[in-house]
Amino acid sequence: MKNFNDIYEKIYAECSQPLEELRKKTRNGITTVILISIIVGIILTIITRSIFMIFLAIIISIFYIALSKNNKNYRTMFKEKIIKSFVKEYSDSLEFYPTKGISEMTYRQAKFEYYERYHSEDLITGTLEGGYAINMAEVQTETEETDSDGNRTTYTVFHGLFAEIGLDKMINSDIRIRRDGMSLFNKKDKIEMDSGEFEKKFNVYSTDKIIAMQLLTSDIMDMLLDFKEKNKITPEITIEGNKFYIRFATGSVFEAKLMKKALDYDTLKRYYDIINFTLDLTEKFLKNINETEV
Amino acid sequence: MNIVIVVVVLLLIYVFMTYNSLITKRNKVKQAASGIDVYLTQRFELIPNLVECVKGYAEHEKEIFEEISKMREKYLKNKNLKDGEILNNECNKIIAISENYPELKANEQFLELQKKLSKMESQLQAARRIYNSEVNVYNNKVQTFPSNIMASLFNFKEEEYFQAEQEATNNIKL
User: Is the pLDDT at A51 greater than 80, yes or no?
Assistant: First the structure.
């Protein structure tokens, strides 16, 4: 695995410039259309004395952004050039497929939450050191609620990165680490951990306290707390059978942003930290699993 | 008058609830302690085999083996966690002895026993952590207001944690 700055510099040298030019061209085009629409909208509003014209200007701008060929090209190019290179540079054994995702069945196996709609894309797949298979992708789950008047509203339940890693050992129990306040499980299975700080921020559920304690050692708890502190994201984990699942409520990932540089250091560093953390954490869990022979 | 009755009833409900909560938490501490005892007993069941295995290679360490066998018998007659932890430390000494005998380290039976002991040590450590977290929950209840009033009224005493030094000694790499 390479150092982040090396990866960044390599991608910067190889594909940053043409993409940055396309981004600027796209951004300028969109800004111009929005400005013209607003000016025309204001003039027409004054002439016709109808506020509707302003809304018309906004609708035209939205349509332009959505249908802009440059914008679509830039988004596709960003994934194909930047993210694909980033994943490849991170590890030769990983591949990025922007149009593929993780199957809903896999996500369901992690037993995170109830939802009605599922969508996944931006799949990173491959093998870790030691031959463990990994699949990581952006996942969005939604649910619908109907109010007393019969109006249906869609809510996002989860939007972020989700990963599944195959273990070479079966765990004869299940362990679920959730952010504090997300108590969907039987309270009987809740485990009081021996770290006050960890208890405040995470809830641990397991049918076997001993195995949970064997795997959740103090260094793993510190790692989870440290990640939460630095990134303001609470990782949630499920270990069941021979699978390790982890997710991060990051919101949308691997998407091009017109108002940010094509190769934005902070954004790419964030992806690097999340992938790094997932792999480091998995490695630590695997070490504990092998050492404790659960 | 009615207000007084309501206040008394509410007070009684609070007393019952706090008392029951203290009992539940104390029982959890006892349960966690018995968890440690289970793993210690399982570990000590391996002592005769371990002594037999090591004896052949380290004849002049006889005194340690005899002492451990005596401690084991004493522990099995009168089980208590402190004696169990001392015996567990002694048990780890046998493994440490093996470092001086390369032939013993290559013995298959010894390796198998070492593997089992290692697994049990890990389970034991987990059981100790469970015990400490249960003691923490119970002690918080005994010490914090207003449940501390009920605790002192019904003679609920604080429980002792496993000391860090004690655990450090036990964390000998097997």
Answer: no
